[in-house]
Amino acid sequence: MAARRSIGIVINGVTGRMGYRQHLVRSLLAIREQGGVALPGGGHIWPEPILVGRDPDKLAAIAARHGLTEWTTDLDAALARPDVEVYFDAQVTQRREKAIRHAISAGKHVYTEKPLAESSAAAEELAELARAAGVRNGVVQDKLFLPGLRKLKRLIDGGFFGRILSVRGEFGYWVFEGDWQAAQRPSWNYRLADGGGIVMDMFPHWNYLLEELFGAVRGVQATIATHIETRVDERGDEYTADADDAAYAIFELEGGVIAQINSSWAVRVNRDELVEFQVDGVLGSAVAGLRGCKIQHRATTPKPVWNPDLPLSGRSFRDEWTEVPDNDEFDNGFKVQWEAFLRHVVAGEAFHWDFASGTRGVRLAEAGLRSAREGRRIELGNA
Ligand SMILES: NC(=O)c1ccc[n+]([C@@H]2O[C@H](COP(=O)([O-])OP(=O)(O)OC[C@H]3O[C@@H](n4cnc5c(N)ncnc54)[C@H](O)[C@@H]3O)[C@@H](O)[C@H]2O)c1
User: Fold this and answer.
1) Which residues pair with 9 in a beta bridge?
2) Is there a single domain that holds both residue 130 and residue 181?
3) Gfo/Idh/MocA-like oxidoreductase N-terminal domain location, by residue (predicted)?
4) Distance from the CA of 305 to the center of ligand 1, in angstroms?
5) What is residue 382's predicted lDDT score, i.e. its pLDDT?
6) What is the CATH number of the domain that holds 306?
7) Are residues 203 and 349 in the same domain?
8) What pairing do the DSSP bridges indicate for beta strands 44-52 and 37-38?
9) Strands, E assignment, the chain
């Protein structure tokens, strides 16, 4: 039987939405169910999760539910274990920097949810500390692995668009205020003092998506809003929501593509998916979502003529697009990136979704907030 290479992974913030469902259950435990991560030279990487959090009852319950035995509320004790090689952080953003500093000084490789830190200065410092300590590092960039966006990437790589002109992104849905229906997102997201705000949450995603698909972001102009100013928290108490819950932004990309992305937790969905990107190129266009991707080629582009006096006579522009076939099996995006990170740690495979990339994401969020505050376009020197 091929060798099993066990690797201890501290998973901090495992009681949270992302920590539990996407990272523990859908990634690390799913990897165990499939028999580990295959190594290029034979054998398998076998993740051994060590659950870390603040509430012992919740940790014990999660461990019991999944047949795990290792959990603790003492992060430093977990980091002192010689069998622990990787620290993973899915805590609220505000607690991340301090914990990652501890992990790096304990000599552990670090993988983390985005945003890497609350400020670009802090993110840069973490990148530098990790480099100096020689620990491998990575930041979650799950959207790159969504089926719809992988199909979009395939179209780009295949030259479908010709010269790409623009990208229009629409992200968002109605997040309930919490008064007559419970909010479906944690309340800290809506308080500035707790590290909330849609710009800090979503611009790191937009940065790596734009950078990998269309070109690095060179300039941003954003208008932000706090549309819903009062919300009700998990305990039923009313609070002032002072963090931005919508951002309307234009990104100028290297190579000339213009991307315009609306991000909002105060919008009702009239789209096929919760996020959609329309890409227009000289030879064709595409609309990609989480799962689907449809195209319209230059040769099948209809020729509408503007005449408000004429009805469209049953015609639907949406029906004149063609679905792109999967042609592949798409696994959970979080899991795919975990597998790549573990191969990076154990087998030294290349992995470019690192702290440097995570830092660029935080820098874009900061620039977006500054643009909104100062009412002007901000240039980024992301070289
Ligand atoms: N990649 C993505 O698509 C994606 C999506 C949502 C959130 N995130 C990121 O994941 C991280 C966690 O977000 P989440 O939605 O899972 O949040 P959550 O509130 O569900 O979980 C937060 C976790 O941090 C812990 N925590 C520590 N200190 C806390 C405090 N003072 N208040 C509240 N919780 C505290 C909680 O116990 C919990 O385990 C954030 O950094 C967020 O930006 C990423």
Assistant:
1) 49, 86
2) no
3) 51-137
4) 49
5) 55
6) 3.30.360.10
7) no
8) antiparallel
9) 4-12, 37-38, 44-52, 71-72, 84-89, 109-112, 137-139, 164-172, 217-225, 230-232, 238-240, 246-253, 258-264, 275-281, 284-288, 293-297, 322-323, 378-379
- Quote the CA–CA distance of 75 and 73 in Å, as a whole number: 6
Hey, which of 12, 15, 18 would you mutate to test ligand 1's pocket, going by the most ligand atoms within 8 Å of its Cβ? 18
Task: Tell me if 201 CB under 6 Å of ligand 1.
Answer: yes
- For residues 220 and 172, membership in a common domain is answered with yes
**Domain identity same for 155 and 56:** no
Task: Indicate which atom in ligand 1 lies nearest the CA of residue 201.
Answer: 43
How far does the centroid of ligand 1 lie from the alpha carbon of residue 325, in Å?
35
Q: Is 22 in the pocket of ligand 1 (CB under 6 A)?
A: no
Number of independent structural domains in the chain: 2
Residues 167, 120, single domain; the answer is: no
The reported pLDDT for the residue numbered 309 is 86
Domain that holds residue 299: 144-330
Residue 306 falls within a domain, yes or no?
yes
- Tell whether 294 and 345 lie within a shared domain: no
How many whole angstroms separate alpha carbon 231 and alpha carbon 183? 9
Tell me the whole-structure pTM to 2 decimals.
0.96
| Distance from the alpha carbon of residue 15 to the mean position of ligand 1, in angstroms | 9
- Residue nearest atom 30 of ligand 1, based on CA coordinates: 92
Question: What does the alpha-carbon distance between residue 21 and residue 336 come to, in Å, rounded to a whole number?
Answer: 15
pLDDT digits (tens, 9 = 90+) for 130-186: 999 999 999 999 999 999 999 999 999 999 999 999 999 999 999 999 999 999 999
Instruction: Please check whether residues 131 and 16 belong to one and the same domain.
Output: yes
| Residue 264, domain member (yes or no) | yes
* 137 CB within 6 A, ligand 1: no
109 & 61 share domain: yes
Q: Read off the pLDDT of residues 299-313 as tens digits, 9 standing for 90 and up.
A: 999 998 888 888 776
Give kind and range of the element (H or E) at residue 156. helix 147-157
The bridge status of strand 293-297 relative to strand 378-379 is unpaired
Task: Check if the beta carbon of residue 45 is closer than 8 Å to that of residue 32.
Answer: no
